[in-house]
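Changelog note: in this version the structure field was regenerated for every chain. One regenerated record is shown below for reference.
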Amino acid sequence: MGKQKYTKEVEDPTKVAMASGSNLRVHFKNTREAATAIKGLSLVKARRFLEDVLEHKRVVPFRRFTGGIGRPAMMKGTGWSQGRWPAKSCNFLLDLITNLEATAEVKELDPEHLVLKHVQVQRAPKYRRRTYRAHGRINAYMCSPCHIQLIATEDEAPVPKPAAAGKSSRAAIEK
């Protein structure tokens, strides 16, 4: 197998850390929701969030795939009503974050200043198995694996706002 292709093109490959997994045997829907929850977080906060989910201290909000999802009391104040604690998905994402940190150290980036800018989960081809039913019938028994891509960039220091001198620029334009 060749080099992994990423769906997002990066401007400067020396300033980003990338990690991916293909054909991972973990449910696509649970992984998609857990990955959406950590998008935009720093690596430290994302790791803490996933570890808290494993300990049932925090919950992953389910936003798209909500059929049959319970409404735990922990969701109060989050703006969403349905959530779960997908342990296997969190473990796979934690492994990828560890891989991302190792890649950052090789590229001499500071893992504490990295922010997850690109988080993508895609459906992978299903593995076909079969289950045997009553009266000699056979049904399909397939899993829903996924591909995961993570790209983290160093967070730049925010630019300070210039001090306003007198009137705002919009008021000067309107006159």
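Spot check on this record: DSSP finds four helices and seven strands in the chain. The longest strand covers residues 114-123.
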